[in-house]
Amino acid sequence: MSLPRYSKYKDSGVEWLGPVPTHWVIHRLGYFFEERREKVSDKDFVPLSVTKLGIVPQLETAAKTDDGDNRKKVIAGDFVINSRSDRKDSSGTAPQDGSVSLINTVLRPLAEFDAGFAHHLLRSVPFQEEFYRYGKGIVADLWSTHYSEMKNIMLAIPEVVEQRAIATFLDRETATIDALIAEQEKLIALLAEKRKAIISHAVTKGLNPKAPMKDSGVAWLGEVPAHWGVRPLKFFAKIGNGSTPNRDNPDYWADEGFPWLNSSVVNQEEVTEAERFVTEKALSECHLPIISPPAILIGITGQGKTRGMATQLQFTATVNQHLAYIKPNMEQLAPIFLLRCLESAYDHLRIESEGAGSTKGAITCDQLGRLRIPAPDLNEQKQIVSFLEMKITKLNELEAGAIRAVALLKERRSALITAAVIGQIDVRRATEK
Predict the structure, then answer these.
(1) How do strand 223-225 and strand 98-100 relate by DSSP bridges?
(2) Tens digit of each residue's pLDDT (9 = 90 or more) over 358-396
(3) What secondary structure, in 3-state letters, does the chain show?
(4) Contact assessment for residue 18 and residue 44, using Cβ atoms and an 8 Å cutoff
(5) CATH homologous superfamily of 207-375
(6) Which residues touch 69 (CB under 8 Å, ≥6 apart)?
(7) Which of 220, 242, 272, 310 could be cross-linked to 342 through a Cys-Cys bond (beta carbons 3.0 to 4.6 Å apart)?
(8) What's the average model confidence in pLDDT over 42-71?
(9) Domain range 9-177+413-432, CATH architecture
């Protein structure tokens, strides 16, 4: 879509705004909004959450408050923004009356001001960057911006009729872009499901659809080819985990040294480098196994998705206590076949680790050792690995294309909003469609 610029511009004198249409007025934010500071209870005012998608009913994951007036009152049409730098982009116009956490700044329009326009303007990337630039540091990577600083941010604003025209245009255009993003995200989810199904079928049923089958006696495996064995993983591999040396001991940590990995690495298809390093002293005094490839790493703790996720280690390293390593016997078990088996067993491992007892929320090395896996001969394992590599490569290419499309659409959405709310384009005629 090609949209015209305004016929005349003036220098705003404000770096983040640049030239603005001559008929737009320039004032500090405090001229248009005042802070709403009234404290209320979420027993009387519906609790709301401030998210990157806007203001929504309180999320289940949000911290619940105790009795007392320890929330901020919000009225429909107020703009709310999280003041903390680690919650960037969490903001929006309140769709209803309610209450929000005290960490948020609540803005009440002082004059006639279109809530839709305020929503797009104050959520735009350049405004958000300006907002957090005004913040004051708490620690190096965490700071807050309060209303006392926020009120000094300069805004350029058209009359309310034009504000509504801009908001109407952006609501329509962003809805179209959001629908396209949703389609691509749905495709990404479908590709992930297809990948999961292809892997599961290959490592549990094999590649020959005519092969006689037998009951494996294992719920997550179901029937397997009759000529396959099914045995505990401990008969095919060495299993263990590591530790985290005392972070307060400088003798244990170095900018360069022996690679040390945490559970975040399981989000990678394969691990090829480390971000943290330990010293020889740490290796000798702490429980830190030296793991050389071929080896598989698997996340074993936590409530997030990483528990049960596995990846392939491609270089010699050590690990923390939240990772287990599996060193397969190469004469019996192909590492990538094992990796695909663990991917297929992901749901089973998570369910088993969520049972009652001391291991709740954790997979133990003993549980991994007792995990019964399919055991075709090594040659058949390698055939399955080759088949899956071909299939997964194609799926990965499709996924990468969809991910790029989402990124481009989001970039286009952000650029369109920015251009409209700071007057780089004139959308008034476009609203007449």
Answers:
(1) unpaired
(2) 445 789 999 999 999 999 999 999 999 999 999 999 999
(3) CCCCCCCCEEECCCCCCCEEECCCEEEEHHHHEEECCCEECCCCCCEEEEECCEEEECCCCCCCCCCCCCEEEECCCCEEEECEHHHCCCEEECCCCEEECCCEEEEEECCCCCHHHHHHHHHCHHHHHHHHHCCEEEECCEEECCHHHHCCCEEEECCHHHHHHHHHHHHHHHHHHHHHHHHHHHHHHHHHHHHHHHHHHHHHHCCCCCCCEEECCCCCCCEEECCCEEEEHHHCEEEEECCCCCCCCCCCEECCCEEEECHHHHHCCEECCCCEEECHHHHHHCCCCCECCCEEEEECECCCCCCCCEEEECCCEEECCCEEEEEECCCCCCHHHHHHHHHHCHHHHHHHHCCCCCCCCECCHHHHHHCEEEECCHHHHHHHHHHHHHHHHHHHHHHHHHHHHHHHHHHHHHHHHHHHHCCCCCCCHHHHC
(4) no
(5) DNA methylase specificity domains (3.90.220.20)
(6) 39, 40, 41
(7) 310
(8) 81
(9) Alpha-Beta Complex (3.90)
Q: Which residues contact 296 (CB under 8 A, 6 or more apart)?
A: 310, 311, 312, 313, 325, 326, 328, 335, 338, 339, 342
- Joined together, the tokens standing for residue 264 give 């975040």
Could you tell me if 89 and 83 are in contact, meaning their C-beta atoms sit under 8 angstroms apart? Answer: no
Backbone Cα Rg of the chain: 28
Considering all CA atoms of the chain, what is the largest pairwise distance in Å, rounded to the nearest integer?
81
pTM score of the predicted model: 0.83
What pairs with residue 318 in β-bridges? Answer: 260
| Domain residue ranges of the chain, discontinuous segments joined by + | 9-177+413-432, 207-375
Cα–Cα distance between 363 and 421 in angstroms, integer? 51
Query: Does 9-177+413-432 match 207-375 in CATH topology?
Result: yes
Q: Which two tokens mark 138?
A: 């708490």
Per-residue burial over 213-225, b if 16 or more Cβ lie within 10 Å, else e, is: eeebebebbeebb
pLDDT computed for residue 352 by the predictor? 85
Residue 57: asked if its preceding bond is cis (omega within 30°), the reply is: no
Please state, in angstroms and rounded to a whole number, the distance separating the CA atoms of residues 255 and 82.
Answer: 35
